[in-house]
Write a structure and sequence with these properties.
The chain has 347 residues and is α/β, with parallel strands linked by helices. It has a domain of 89 residues. Helix content is 31%, strand content 20%. It is built from twelve helices and twelve strands. The strands form two sheets. Strands 6-7-8-3-9-10-12-11 form an eight-stranded mixed beta sheet, with helices on both faces. The chain has a four-stranded antiparallel beta sheet with strand order 2-1-4-5, with helices on one face. Strand 11 and strand 12 form a beta hairpin. Helix 6 packs across helix 7. Bound molecules: adenosine-5'-triphosphate (ATP), iron/sulfur cluster and magnesium ion. Magnesium ion binds next to helix 2. The site of magnesium ion (MG) has 3 residues, from helix 2.
Amino acid sequence: MTVPLSKSSPPLMEIHNLTKTFPVAQSLLSRWRGQPQRAVQALTDVELTVRRGETLGIVGESGCGKSTLARTLVRLYDADRGSVRYGDLDVLALRGADLRQYNRRVQMIFQDPYSSLNPRMTVEAVLREALSVHKMRPAGEQPARVRELLKLVGLPPEAAGRLPHEFSGGQRQRIGIARALALEPECLIADELVSALDVSVQAQVVNLLLELQERLDLTVLFVAHDLRLVRHISHRVAVMYLGRVVEVSDTAAIFTTPRHPYTQALLAAAPTLDPSQRTAAPAITGELPSPLNVPSGCAFRTRCPHAFDRCAVERPALLQLKDGPEVACHLYDSAAPLTPAPLRVAT
Ligand SMILES: Nc1ncnc2c1ncn2[C@@H]1O[C@H](COP(=O)(O)OP(=O)(O)OP(=O)(O)O)[C@@H](O)[C@H]1O
Ligand code: SF4
Ligand SMILES: [Mg+2]
């Protein structure tokens, strides 16, 4: 399990009002009719603080914006608006050498490293290229560093001379991690790192990440579907729904006392969390609304068993509760008509 992280751990990345839309291609007919351009609302005013040295899990249903958030944070996508501060850097304004330097410090690791590994380059050549591009080591020191990196990710020295297709999925994921570590990053953003791997291999790769996180004092954003893995690896968890962060809390609190009705429903619907031990809880009802047409007010109101009038007209802000968690739900702010008893989930 994860090592407890001090609550006073300073922020590494501060995200405010981060918004990203994807315009939908418009037909000639709809343009001719003067119909407005439609857009997928992938992120809406995301508020999130990532603390130095933590592993922050990011969960939510498919299409809720997890990958868009990850990609926007490493500047693969341009945000529509909002701000991302990394130490004293204004990330969204970085250009040229400053952006390259930021991308060295904040590395993204993808689900399928195979697609980003040149099939004709040996592992040694892949790692040496990473070391050369960012001038991490002079040529003479590179072979030793390659061996060091392979050891760090649990691969034998002989792996250096092999081509990517000679490795299993789990081993290729280790090569992807080694390539990221070659740049000595401070922060890793792992998007569905192990989703494509067999369950037994998933655990090995996730445990490797846990070990590296502690050993190298990395900050990790761990985006995943699998709540069991997120629980195992994360210090804190952020829950997203339709492009918004709706709850952020310590991992233990999220899994035992989820506050937001969506978090409660998400956990109630998760088959991996030993349903035999759980108390009765509302499952998610209704269809996920289209991100082209996000409901007014609280985006979860069309599926929420507690929705009331105010939920349709006012978007709930993410507010910190007295005992720590941050929740975006009118039930928890002072103007709310009732305070629901939090769902308790057996651990
Ligand atoms: N490049 C893109 N162009 C257009 N729409 C996009 C693009 N990338 C994502 N979207 C849309 O933005 C929304 C959020 O997608 P995103 O991939 O971030 O979700 P996700 O939470 O990562 O989902 P999953 O769990 O399936 O990986 C979805 O409606 C998706 O269709
Ligand atoms: S704000 Fe209203 S609709 Fe949204 S989660 Fe809370 S109670 Fe439900
Ligand atoms: Mg995704």
